[in-house]
Amino acid sequence: MYDLLIFDWDGTIIDSEASIIGSMQSAALDLSIGVPDHAAVRNIIGLGLPEAIRMLFPDQDDAFVLAMRDRYVHHFLSADPTRSNLFPGVRDTLENLHGQGFRLAVATGKSRRGLDRVLSDTGLAPLFEITKCADETASKPDPYMLEEILLVTDIDPRRALMIGDTEYDLEMGQRAGVDTVAVSYGAHHIDRLSRWNPVLEVHQFTELGSWLLRHKAS
User: Fold this and answer.
1) Taking the model in full, what pTM does it have?
2) What is the CATH number of domain 17-82?
3) Residue 82: is its pLDDT beyond 60?
4) Which of 11, 15, 26, 92 could cross-link to 75 by cystine, CB 3.0-4.6 Å?
5) What is the distance between the alpha carbons of residues 109 and 92, in angstroms, rounded to a whole number?
6) Sequence spans of domains, the chain
7) Contact 39, 126 (CB under 8 A)
8) Cα–Cα dist 133/144, whole Å
9) CATH 1.10.274.10: does it fit domain 4-15+85-217?
10) DSSP string computed for 55-75
11) What's the pLDDT tens digit per position in 20-34?
């Protein structure tokens, strides 16, 4: 059914919500501006960092966005790495899918620097054929990130699957003509994801692997 599996990172592969929220709130404190609450920051997880900052602080200028980005990166990179762990079953499932011949990719709102760091920390880098970050291309939900991945891998959109935990992931997939899977344990409530008509909703990462392997066998 599918040859290429494209994964969001934060909220899908890794539980980094606490680090993201804490870093954004600390950055706001550094710049003496109103601190966004947890719900507001959860809502922007998945976007590119400049786009996320503009959504949180719509009345601020470009200079503020740059300053906020620098402070956020400072806090995120210095955060306790033990606060961000792979979700249960992720490593085994990804290794199994890779071993079964599925091609794996990442489409993320993270920066290249941030993604390379966590790929190295987790040891997952060899599993992914291609990765795309928001500072290299258009931010979600623009479909361009997926279109670039499909072009490089020479995969028909109908043979690819986008897996993510936010509306931005699923909207991006829909706009690119790619089927989607909604994961319910991440940043956005499953009710928000369901309206994008994913082919599957999962509540644990391992459910994705089981579903894919059943369909491949049939």
Assistant:
1) 0.91
2) 1.10.150
3) no
4) 26
5) 24
6) 4-15+85-217, 17-82
7) no
8) 11
9) no
10) HH-TT--HHHHHHHHHHHHHH
11) 999 999 999 999 999
